[in-house]
Write a structure and sequence with these properties.
The chain is an alpha+beta fold. The protein has 2 domains: about 5-160 and about 310-440, FAD/NAD(P)-binding domain, CATH 3.50.50; about 165-305, Elongation Factor Tu (Ef-tu), domain 3 (Beta Barrel). It is built from 13 helices and 17 strands. The strands form 4 sheets. A 6-stranded mixed beta sheet has the order 6-2-1-7-17-16, with helices on one face. It has a 6-stranded antiparallel beta sheet with strand order 10-11-12-13-9-14. A hairpin with a 2-residue loop joins strand 16 (about 325) and strand 17 (about 330-335). Helix 1 packs parallel to helix 10 (about 345-360) and helix 2 packs parallel to helix 10. The protein is globular, with a radius of gyration of 22 Å.
């Protein structure tokens, strides 16, 4: 039981394996590259960065900055390598790719408690504790095995997501709560006049699209057609589709608006709201212009941009506990993009927690979860408790943690940063205490 299997040596798997090993347990780390490559990877190195080289913004007012601080406190291999191979990037933590990957690879291949197995895994080990971290391009055979184990409808193979905005940045003097035809008022509604719709349509049709890599190419289905593609079909197409105002009269006028944008809650507390039917492949800067051209969202803070690309991930709210264990298979844990997070940093952070809990399970200890005031705690709590309908992967953002009162946004977030990091450190000391003698 003191052997932990980690499948996949991306950022999540590398962090999980390193965490288990430094806590004093044996690790078998499986990686199919370079024997079998993915469409995106170019090397057999661990933690290879295939898109951006950035691990996100830094500082006390940045949500990713808090997650970085938590990972440094946890002794993260990924953050240590990132700090050593940092390149100038303004207020962000960016790295030199080859040196970063090489350092992670050396640390794991040279660790006395890590055995690297270069082979493709087509089925999960039948015994022992397992961390699954195969990422957005999970090989077909293993994906098929997961479908058989978990149910085919719990595994998605593409990511068609709409932008998500922070609830506190919505203008509730304009936006009204209502359900269509007087049904349950679970939605927020942004009303547009004919003139406002015309301006919105102009911004949308002039926005630039992201150019996907060859391996990201998708065939669009009618049920997840990007909003910009709908607009190109005709001026009224969005207005008779996701922006249909029928059955949604504005309570201030008693009349239906010319068009309406609906917002659906992403979390039980209503801290984050997604734009219904606005899945998009636009460049991020252009997405912001489009979103902020909608009445009531002029000052909206986007906490997750819309995406349209190849991505294998699980419906975490139906499957996974905040500990990152599968509810029906508690010896199995999952981390990284596969569990439903976006971003390198978030992948590594869930890898750390999965590795920690795998080690605890291997010793017969109960798994543990960081406090929700911490960014990692808020992230894994979201994964387990989000609305499972239309679940989409999430990145670190301030909507994941309980808010604080304060006049100035920067002041509030700095206080949330300090509160989260302090709570994380207290939790971490307790979580790691049982391994003191073993790891020594």
């Amino acid at each position: 039981m003191r052997m932990v299997h980690v499948i996949g040596a991306g950022l999540a798997g590398s962090e999980a394996a390193y965490t288990v090993a430094r806590l004093g347990l044996e690790v078998r780390l499986y990686e199919m590259r370079p024997l079998r490559m993915t469409p995106a990877h170019r090397t057999g190195g661990f933690a290879e960065l295939v898109c951006s080289n950035s691990l996100g913004g830094e500082g006390e007012t940045n949500a990713k900055g808090l997650l970085q601080a938590e990972m440094r406190a946890a002794g993260s291999l990924i953050l240590r390598a990132a700090d050593r191979h940092r390149v100038p990037a303004g207020g962000a933590l960016a790295v030199e790719r080859e040196g970063f990957s090489a350092e992670v690879t050396r640390a794991l291949e040279g660790h006395p408690r890590v055995r690297v197995v270069r082979q493709e895994v087509v089925a999960l080990p039948e015994e022992g504790v397992v961390v699954l971290a195969t990422g957005p391009l999970t090989a077909d055979a293993l994906a098929q095995h997961l479908q058989e184990l978990l149910g085919a409808h719990f595994l998605s193979f593409y990511d068609a997501a709409a932008p998500v905005v922070l609830g506190e940045s919505i203008d509730h003097g304009v936006v009204y709560r209502a359900g269509r035809y007087g049904q349950s008022a679970d939605y927020l509604n942004c009303p547009l006049t004919e003139e406002e719709y015309r301006r919105f349509y102009e911004v949308l049709t002039q926005a630039r699209r992201h150019t996907p890599h060859d391996w990201e190419q998708l065939e669009f289905f009618e049920g997840c057609m990007p909003i910009e593609e709908l607009a190109r079909r005709g001026y009224d197409t969005p207005r008779f589709g996701p922006m249909k105002p029928v059955g949604l009269p504005d309570p201030r006028t008693g009349k239906e608006p010319y068009a309406v944008v609906q917002l659906r809650a992403e979390d039980p507390q209503g801290r984050m709201w997604s734009l219904v039917g606005f899945q998009t492949g636009l460049k991020w800067g252009d997405q912001k212009l489009v979103v902020q051209s909608i009445p009531g969202l002029e000052r909206a803070e986007i906490v997750r941009y819309g995406v349209m690309h190849r991505n294998t991930y699980l419906c975490a709210p139906r499957l996974v506990e905040p500990t990152l264990q599968f509810r029906q298979h508690p010896r199995l844990l999952v981390a990284g993009v596969l569990v439903g997070v976006e971003g390198y940093l978030e992948s590594a952070a869930t890898g750390f927690l999965a590795g920690l809990n795998a080690a605890r399970l291997a010793l017969g200890l109960p798994p543990t979860v960081p406090p929700e005031e911490s960014m990692l705690g808020g992230l894994v709590s979201y994964l387990a408790r989000a609305n499972p309908e239309n679940f989409q992967p999430m990145n670190a953002n301030w909507g994941l943690v309980p808010p604080l009162e304060g006049a100035r946004k920067a002041e509030r977030r700095a206080r949330m940063y300090r509160r989260g990091l302090e709570g994380f450190k207290v939790w971490l000391e307790e979580a790691l205490a049982p391994f003191a003698a073993l790891a020594g």
